User: What shape does this take?
Amino acid sequence: MSTTPVPDHSPGHELVVVANRLPVDSRTLPDGATEWVTSPGGLVTAMESVMRTVDSGAWVGWAGAPGEAPDPFEADGMSLYPVRLEQEDVERYYEGYSNATLWPLYHDVIVDPVFHRTWWDSYLSANQRFAEAAAPVAARGGTIWVHDYQLQLVPRLIREKRPDVRIGFFNHIPFPSVELFSQLPKRNSILRGLLGADLLGFQRESDSLNFVAAVRKLLGYHVDGLTISVPGVGAAPMREVEVRTFPISIDSSAVSALTEDEEIRERARALRHDLGDPAKVVLGVDRLDYTKGIRHRLKAWGELLDDGLIDPHDTVMIQVATPSRERVEAYRQLRDEVELTVGRINGEHAPLGRPAVSYQHHSFDRREMTALFMAADVVLVTALRDGMNLVAKEYVASRPDLQGVLVLSEFAGAADELRAAVLVNPHDIDELKSAILRALAMPEEEQEEAMRSLRHQVMENDVQSWAHDFLEHLEHAGREAQAAVPVVRLRGDEPSAPEEIDEALRAFADVPRLLIASDFDGVLAPIVEDRDAVQPDAEALGALRDLAEMPGVAVALVSGRALEDLDRHTQMPSSVVLVGSHGAEVGALPPWMQAEVLDRSALSMTPEKEELLATITATLRRIARAHPGTEVETKPTAAVLHTRSARGRGGINATESALEYATTLPDVTVTPGKEVVEFSVVHTSKGVAVDALARASASDAWLYLGDDVTDESVFAAAEEQDVTLKVGGGDSAAALRIADTVAAREVLQRLRKLRGEQR
Assistant: This one.
């Protein structure tokens, strides 16, 4: 491959790919010079296709050798930017945190993950290095696509440096359940790192749901379906991050075309002949990794031979185990176990001059692999957990003759697409044995029918389609993010300066027509464990009543409480509008307000919504019964799980159960708040409600006081003339912060005085 240096002052690149490795490997020539050779692999193939469609593409990654990184260079029309990793980084960031901590945890803890704080430190510093290399090389408004579990902090790190770019992240391996992910030290840092992206892609729908559930439980961010509302980084605006499923594929046309090569066809025939021309050849092709189920497969094969159900004179198994991560102890142990098992099987069952299992512990090039696939009557893909498993798709693409049988683990991502395979639970050895026997005995007509279905899926959905689909969605998600809502203005807990608040109130009081709106719990009344025992601040309510009687002033209470409950606790006059259930219930309006601008049809309950709400309520009550002290509140359009009075860890566990249940309800608005989780079958928010009230009252500006995450939709909608006050601590889109309910009362009293002076 010819290479040239990247110019020192080259313009930014339209598309930048960031991965742990560069798409090339170095090779030392006899004269000592270095030659760069394109790496094999689906990601490289996909990006080659995509890069041809952009004016300028770049790839950031490690060159593969510890120590000083080469200078940036160009190869095959792509600019390559090597990242430096020292030997300690390789041991701690890559072999340690990435492959001895994250890899086993994300693969259902098939082996125990190892946690070391020094590994995390190295993971963080390595991710910073990748981000520092990638951020400067993207064009303004360009796209950066980050790949895989080694670089989960990179999206946020880039976002902090380059808020102008679109950022995508694709996770090539599974994402674990909330219960497993919660074991991970620094778990929230990982989630926040990933949420620096505009679009997060996962292999399977279950992975997407697992990620969203983790964000809900551990970060408490608002989630609507698979869209996550994320507070901005630094001065960046609040953003919406989209989560989607993008099952990766292969360059299926190129693989299929290799089967027309006469040399490869002859090699396939020679392979069978070298094995003694058996009636059946069974093939397993894997990296030597404990997630691939090689031990389970060999156990099943050995038992079939022991039982006499397979004749080793007629049937031979080939197991290709590509070397992998041999410096990691779990992988060295796996190799010893596999080689011991193969030796035992061959010692007990191999005929003279022919193996019962032909074990190949080395790599094969693409042509040799195609020949192996063409020679195999059955391919076993028995992964215990796999993000996708492209071997399954490569086998299908290698069989245009429509013969051969794929035995596929239901725990591989490919099982979601390749439904015509013989699907199997590899943990069940008896089931695995039966699946192998079924595959060996499958008639040619049945093989043809299944393979035709499999090939349609694989040939129609290739790796180029996968890459283009992801980038198209990222372009849309990026545009939405760049047109997002206002800046997160407040961080930490420190109240705003009194003079700053007073200046804002003075300017607001001078506006001709005002809307003054406030949350109830936490603003006008201190939060208490028993919500029925709440005691609102009488002086604060009195100030609101007085304001509602002033000319040009509209007043509203906007609460998560049910409308009837809110009315009972406040006893406000008809001049004050009550809004309950986060905007889903609106009380009577004063006659001078324009009621026609409120679209009540969107808030109406249908029989379908009534049935759904009843199901949700019943499920939440089952969760509450399992966690003493937890209770369920019912509203006309929602059900709410309250955990404030739960005992011990009961509140956390109940919330976790509720949020896990929420992942099954994509059409329900689920809102976690302060020790509550609300499930609403009517889609609205406090922000929508305040906007409607502002239009109905024809106000020139509005003021809003709120304390909860549910109030952020109001704060985010504020314009320059509006006043937003956050009560209490935490990041917020509000412009001003006050300390507590006493300060809220003082704000309302001060506003009453200032407005009264305008008369």
